[in-house]
Structure formats: structure tokens, C-alpha cells
Amino acid sequence: GCHDFDISHNIIDNISDGFPAEGVNPNENVYGVAATRVHHSTNGDGDTTDYRPCKKGLISHNRVSNCANWKALDTHGGVDLVFSHNIIHHAHIGIGVDEGGGTSARGYAPPRRISITNNIIKSGVSPLEKHRAGITLFAHDNTSENIGSDFIISGNIIEGFGDFGSDGGLSISNCKLINVSGNIFKKQTNRSVRLKNTVEECLITDNLFRDCLTDTSCMGINVSSGTSRASISGNTFYQSSSLDELEAITTVSASAGYGTTLSADNTFVGNVAPVDNIERLSNNSQYIQRIIAQGVVINTGSASLQKGRGVISVSSSSTGKVVITTEEPI
């Protein structure tokens, strides 16, 4: 592994296919830039002294095009790395952060303290061209030796991923302490952000999710694992198409000690379904506690709405009882 390095201001284009024996098509292991290590531990005890991970590196201001079969920029087990101001066009995975070993024989080398900021990552070709993910944060498992930690994902523009498998603009697995802020996700064909396996202390805030492309529906933030702990606030979800619905936030039932907290300051514009199941959110979510309708109802045998907002209709169901239909389902 390399230490104290700078890979900047390069143009990398038309990377040919890798060797089929090293992967399954389209994953034939080609890279624009890879900051990696030899997956081996000398004494079989997980120590990485002899085969160290890459550390203290800057990968910036590069332009990588046509890396269709795997990753434009990559690290396996990198520590203290910055990926910044790169332009990536047409890659299976734009920026891939991955585990660097994961076993005593291969060495324990999770990715840690990595910043991915101000990059432009575009699939660049029509859908169904096997564009898996804009950015991946993947570690081997959730043990203390292997869980990835301390990531900043900020200021990136990620466009047009998610048409291969179940990933999308950003996919996170077996990582903790993640800040996802100020990014623009647009024209994804599956999920914009996916949390899977174990994800802990993940803040998703102040991002724009815009105009998914699909013939049915797609998801803005998909919490697909019960062992995820995430806080979602201040994001804007926008869908201009009346035909394609954007499911802004989808979740599964949380395991004990985990859950998704949703604030009341997220914004939903256009053909957007805000939350697939409110009951799966953490009980302290402001979104659950917010006021969705107000009104003054007069009931003198037949109910009438004098004034209000968020109310479609009122009607008397029996003596002393009024049925109120709100614009947003409760």
C-alpha cells in the first residue's frame, strides 16, 4: 500500500475489459485509479504491517471515462483518503470504497476516514447499460476489526445509476459514522441511496433527490436492513413526471437498538410518495409528530368545515362523531 500520495490532473479514457478469470461480467476488474493493498497477512493473524493499506492520499481533479466493466476510482481498505473534484463518465461503479481483506489470512483492513467531495459522476449512457452505483461504501462485516467508519460524502452530483442489481447513486454496507450531505442525486433508475447489512450513525441531510427514471417507481432513500440506524433531515425530493412516482423514503422493520429517524423538515414536491410505512420509523421522529391538518368543524347534526388546511372533507357518522378526511393519509 502507498502512503502520502497525490494522484491528480490525469485523463483516463477507454479502459479495456479485464480478465474474465478475475471477475464475472460485467465485473472484470478494471480500474481507472486503485489505491489498494495485497490481501494477505504474513502470520495469518490479520496483521497488515507487511501488506499495509494505502493511507494519507489525495485523488483529485482527474477525468475518467468509459470504465464500463468495473470501477473508475477505487480503494480497498484505504485510510485517510480524499476523492475530490473528479469527473467520471460511464462507469459500472464511479467511486468504489471497499474492504481490504476481512479475514485473519487476508488481513483486517476496513476502509476508514475517507472523504468523497465535489465529484461529478454520471452514467452518461442510456439506461440498461449496467451502471450499478455512483459511490459504494462497503466493508466486510460489522465486527470491530472489519466495520468501515468515518466517511464524508458531500457536494457530489450523481446521475443515472441503479440499472444493474439493487444498488443506486450511493450504496452503504457495514459502515458507521457517515455524513451524506449537500449532494444531488438525479435520474437514478432504482435507488438513490441504499443502506444494507449494518449501517450505524448515518446522517442524510440537505440533499436533492430529483427525477427518477423508471416505468413503475423508484426510491430516494431505501433503508433495506433492520440493522440500520439513520437520521434523515432537510432533504428535498422532487419528481416532475406524472407517470413515474418517486418513493422518497422506504424502510423495513428495525431490529432492537436500530431505526430510522425522520425530521419534519424534508420537502416533497411533485409526484412523490413521502414514506412507505410511518409505523416503521423511530417513535421520536418529528415527521410522525408534525401537524398534517387543522380546522374548525361545526357539528349540528351535519358537520361542516368552517376553515382549515389539509382537510378534504368532514361528515357526521353518528351523534357527536365526525369523520375527517385529510389530504395526507394518517
Topology (SSEs and partners):
Elements: E1 3-8, E2 11-13, E3 31-35, E4 55-60, E5 63-76, E6 79-84, E7 87-98, E8 112-117, E9 120-122, E10 133-138, E11 148-154, E12 157-159, E13 168-181, E14 184-186, E15 191-205, E16 208-210, E17 217-223, E18 228-233, E19 236-239, E20 245-250, E21 259-262, E22 267-270, E23 272-275, H1 286-289, E24 294-299, E25 303-309, E26 311-318, E27 321-326
Parallel strand pairs: 1-4, 2-5, 3-5, 4-6, 5-7, 6-8, 7-9, 7-10, 8-11, 9-12, 10-13, 11-13, 12-14, 13-15, 14-16, 15-17, 15-18, 16-19, 17-20, 18-21, 19-22, 20-23
Antiparallel strand pairs: 24-25, 26-27
Give the helix tally. Answer: 1
Q: Say how many strands there are.
A: 27
SS class:
mainly beta
Integer average pLDDT = 88
Shape: elongated
Describe the main β-sheet briefly.
23 strands, parallel
Low-confidence stretches: none
Helices and strands, in order, run as EEEEEEEEEEEEEEEEEEEEEEEHEEEE
* Portion in beta strands: over 45%
C-alpha termini separation: 54 Å
The residue fraction in helices comes out at: under 10%
Work out the radius of gyration. 23 Å
